[in-house]
Amino acid sequence: MIEKGRIQYFDILKAISIFLVVFCHIVILKYDGYLDNISMLVCWMAVPCFLLVNGAILLNKKLDLKKHYKKVLLIYIVNIIWKIIYLLFYVCINKFDLVNVSKFDLLKYIFLFGNLKNINTDHFYFIKALLAIYIIFPIIHCSFNDEKNGKKNLGIILIFIIIFTYGINIIEFIGKYIIKDNRMTFTEIKDVFLFGKYAIFLLFFVLGGYIHFYREKIEKIKHRKLICILAICISLILLAVSKYIINGTFQWKGIYLQNGYDNIATCILSIAFFILVQNLSIKNKYLSKVFTEIGSSTLGIYYIHIPILTLFSIYLYRYIYFKGVFINTIKSILVILISYVIIRIIRKIPILKKIVI
């Protein structure tokens, strides 16, 4: 079980992941850039790494059921508050008009995870996935920590998840893009599977628990770091080839990889990076403090970064005359710093500090 206190490599992973999230949103990249395309493919590991860390922490510590469901309720309430904040923000910048929306659509947007046109809340899918996992988490925790056959039984479920997600996705990909046969779709089979559209996210969450639990055995694997680096390189090549097969380009072209989370290469990339960083420590106390502070503020940054980026795109981007990975990196660091300052201010206000948990 994990003892109380922060584990540094978790904060490192979370800080890198939130950087990648900010990096891939409202970008300033070269349209025909090859490096730009690769950098965007790397970003697909951000959310999986969040879930790997989350699972590693929660599955390897004792469960307080009452406290857990209070947390679930808090996440839902915070989500509602941020939906309202986003609504008011887009009204204030004249990107959304309340006159054109029905009361039903408005209530659905605020309370039932709905979306409204011209309000950029697409990234809120992560909160839905997190809540879906947290609702059934006590059952997963009970199985994972059953010393008799728990991990073995849960492992069997993971195998089924892999078959019903990546297995079917690979067959569909080959059918649609290699064989050129659009009949090779298996939606009906997927519908049979219990965990639905968030099955892959559940897979990452549980795998995080396993990887952290068996970390000492994993560390003893010969050439572990080299294997991870090779796996990362191979998975990025596979993602680039996937995009080329689907979109006919190795350049960025403003095109996100289609169904990136459903690509098994994303899974390999995320797990390899997680294991590579496992038990990494930073000796420099100032740099260590930076990762700790950012790592403990990721959910707040996740909510705040889109409004900041939206303002950047309206008032700042027009003055930027060159694009690329470097300037997009600067943008991402600046947005994270601004978000962090806002979080520090909010945390000093008792009634508001819970919205940046």
Description:
With 357 residues, the chain is mostly helical. It has one domain. The protein is built from 15 helices and no strands.
Q: Report the radius of gyration as a whole number of Å.
A: 21 Å
Average predicted confidence as pLDDT: 93
What's the oligomerization state?
A: single chain
Sheet-strand content, in percent, reads under 5%
Number of DSSP strands? 0
Provide the helix percentage: 55-70%
N/C terminus separation:
23 Å
Low-pLDDT windows of residues: none
Task: Sketch the topology as an H/E string, one letter per element.
Answer: HHHHHHHHHHHHHHH
Summarize the biggest pleated sheet.
none
The best one-word shape is: globular
The figure for the number of domains is 1
Helical segment count: 15
User: Structural class of the helices, strands and pairings?
Assistant: mainly alpha
In short:
With 357 residues, this protein is mainly alpha-helical.
Q: Topology of this protein?
A:
Layout: H1 8-23, H2 34-42, H3 46-58, H4 65-92, H5 103-111, H6 125-144, H7 150-178, H8 187-192, H9 199-213, H10 215-219, H11 224-247, H12 264-277, H13 285-295, H14 298-315, H15 325-347
Helix pairs in contact: 1-3, 1-13, 1-14, 1-15, 3-9, 3-12, 4-6, 6-7, 6-9, 7-9, 11-12, 14-15
Task: Give short descriptive properties of this protein.
357 residues; mainly alpha; 15 helices; 67% helix
